[in-house]
Amino acid sequence: MVTLGPDRVALLDARDGRPRPLSDAQVGRGAWLPGLGDTLAVRFAVDGATVFDTAAGTHWSARTCDGQGTVAVARAPRTGPSPGAVAVVCDSGWVHVLGEAATATRFDSGLGTAWRSASTAAWQADGRGLLIGTHSGAVGAFAWPGGARRYQLHAGVGQVLRIASDGARATAVGDQGGALVWDVQTGAELARLPASAGRTVAMTADGEIHLFGSTLSRWHVPADARAFIVPGGERDHGMASATVSPDGTRIALARADGTVLVLRAADGAAVFRDRPADHVLKFTAWSSDGARLAVASPQTPGLVEYAATADWSRLPDTGLGALRRVVALSSGARVAAPYSHGLLVVPAQIHTAPLSYAPTSTAGVAMDFRDLSVSLDQRHAVAVDAAGGVHRCEDGAVVSCRFLTRVAGAEVADVALGGSLFAVGSEGRVALFDAAGVPLRAALTGGDRIHDIAFSPDRSWLAVGELAGAARVIEVASLKTRAVLAAHTRRVSAVAFDPAGRWLLTASWDGSARLWDLPTLTTAPAVLAAQAEARWGPVGVSNGGGGHSDP
Fold first, then answer.
1. Stretch 380-405: mean pLDDT, rounded?
2. Which residues in 416-455 are b (16+ Cβ under 10 Å) and which e?
3. Which helix (H) or strand (E) holds 527?
4. What pTM value is reported for the model?
5. Does the pLDDT of residue 424 top 90, yes or no?
6. Which residues contact 246 (CB under 8 A, 6 or more apart)?
7. Peptide bond into 145 cis (omega under 30)
């Protein structure tokens, strides 16, 4: 559909490109509605709308807005209580749902009046709900029929609104750009994209989101992030740690009640459960072949190991004291951080005496280590001591550890695949260093205290777990936040990527672990635009200024 001038709308003939006028009445703008078996177009008039069935060559009109102006229309699907109905949203905030015979049901959205009125609308896939966004940035959800308010959705995002075709989730952007993604049924926030992402949005059934602004980007946010919820009990069942097996098929969780739990990544089904301690387990670590699982415990034995076979037998006690962290190296050696001072390197031969790495402070006291992480190839480890010192360990015939650099306030660290890049997190700040500990760049995240940090396999992304319950996805090249995943209610204690880079695992003290599909931002803008047009038709792209064109 094209607008030919202030008072005419036409369809372009696909054979010769010539316009076929549909109406000479005064026109606000025109828009396509998904045909669902036919081809429909809608003309926005001053106080209503005309709906054209271009396949049948018919149209019908309704003047509904009492001279206040029409600001949005949305067509219900062919299923549900009002099949094929069209919702006409007026500048006054009133909504009229028109049946195909132009019969109307009228209700007040309550979302605002003149200059703060409704601006966009979208139906759920089953036709039993309607979302309406406003110029003030609010989004409201209405059960149908009757227009009964279900809940007030999020503020600041209401000006461009889309619902995925399966009806499970919605996304919207507002005046400042960015996008919020939420679950349509519950209103729960699933993700928040940065303000620079765009002003015009399109969304597919599987959660793929195209954002168009001064830049063009594509994101993939699943409907519910596949939650693995562990039932609560008398004790706190929060997740202290979560790690992914080398082949990406299993997830090991260390829980606050002393339980270690292994889940199948495909569906969250429990594979193994044991309770080796009476208090919180601190960390889990997979051997490089996935045949062994090590668990750090603050009790004795501090290192609990299992043969990850069909019977999951517990291996002999190594005799180590209480441990805060443990990681496994590719040679079979383990590096452990005890509650006493220094690091312990446990050789692959389980009965060989462990080696000790205990750097001292200026006062001659051995440093206490607070965090310990390993690269995805398990050849490099990084540790952070209580004074902000960052240390690296290298695998080999003899595991060697050495001081790398010192970062004020450092609390967590990770090392990228290959060992050439280190990330250090502190209170709302991320810093990158090269293999020699030379600073590369640093940035404030805009978030809370960081509890865990992890590189993606291709070193393009950093995942950060925060105290307030958010997980942040940061682009390594710019250190800019690209998404905030806000599904947890308590601190995110662990973040980890699967080895293939397909998804991100987050675990929290709220008792849940979640899997997130990763955003795809590496495709060239021209390719993304072609993909978008092939899927949705011509798409208006913002120039990054004060306005945008509608997709």
1. 93
2. bbebebbbbbbebbbbbbeeebeeeeeeebebbbbbbbbb
3. helix 525-536
4. 0.71
5. yes
6. 286, 288, 289, 290, 378, 499
7. yes
